[in-house]
Write a structure and sequence with these properties.
3 domains; alpha+beta; globular; four-stranded antiparallel β-sheet; single chain; 253 residues
Length: 253
């Protein structure tokens, strides 16, 4: 029997849906329109302002899915659970832990040009590497993102091998059975080009902190610089010297 342990945290929208579903279940408190009618009205209003066929198709698809949920007579609690499950499926995340059994791995060694590389067929973002000495490691492409904090305060994010490495060191590497969290670890950092302060370039990285999937901050202040062997740790003093050089170069530009 499949048992899925999920404790959804209801958002403001979920709570509103819960109230509407409560009204639906109690005719004397029912609104003048059904929940499905309300959703259709909202989608139609959005369609009036949307001239993009792609966006219109997404709106209609959302309404279709919403009607299906209404037809299943969910309570406010069960619709929250269903939403969590649906979000995991949309994000390509498994509903039960992944075990390290032969049937879940596809050999991708030919793609990498060397043996020992596998991709999980239950979760396309999960990979397995078997080293020549027999040691095994796992990598989830979606486990971590690097959030770059710019001098003016705005942020952008992307995948980073350095961020993956730091999370493995601080929070621990992936082990199986593996049940990925809904949200990734976020590694906050500042990056800059210490020599010329060129836009889009960097040779120095300041790791500020890690934030886990529940929003908890994990202290992790580290400093790295680009070397011939890749990004290597440097001292705070070396970082400060590079930062001063960057500020000087930025003023000249």
């Amino acid at each position: 029997m499949l048992t899925i342990k999920i404790k959804p945290r209801l958002s403001a929208l979920d709570e509103s849906l819960s109230r509407l579903l409560y009204l639906k279940e109690h005719p004397r408190r029912r609104l003048h329109e059904s929940l499905s009618d309300w959703a259709e009205r909202e989608v139609n209003l959005a369609l009036k302002d949307n001239t993009d066929p792609y966006g219109s198709g997404c709106l209609k698809s959302a309404l279709k899915a919403f009607r299906s949920l209404c037809d299943d007579n969910h309570s406010g609690f069960s619709i929250g659970i269903t939403k969590c499950l649906l979000n995991r499926l949309i994000d390509g995340k498994p509903l039960t832990p992944i075990e390290d059994t032969p049937d879940v791995w596809n050999d991708t060694s030919d793609f990498w040009g060397e043996s020992g590389h596998y991709q999980c067929n239950r979760m396309s973002a999960l990979f397995k590497t078997v080293a020549p000495d027999g040691s095994v490691s796992y990598h989830d492409v979606d486990r971590t993102i690097l959030v770059e904090v710019y001098d003016d305060g705005h942020e952008s994010d992307w995948h980073s091998g350095l961020a993956d490495k730091i999370v493995d060191e601080v929070c621990g590497p992936i082990t199986l059975p593996y049940y990925p969290t809904a949200q990734p670890y976020k590694v906050y950092a500042q990056q800059f080009d210490s020599v010329n302060a060129e836009v889009g370039c960097f040779d120095t990285v300041h790791i500020i902190k890690i934030v886990d999937h529940e929003g908890n901050e994990i202290p992790c202040e580290r400093f790295y610089a680009e070397m011939d062997t890749g990004m290597e740790p440097i001292s705070k003093e070396e970082y400060d010297r590079r930062r001063a050089s960057y500020e000087t170069a930025k003023c000249k530009n």
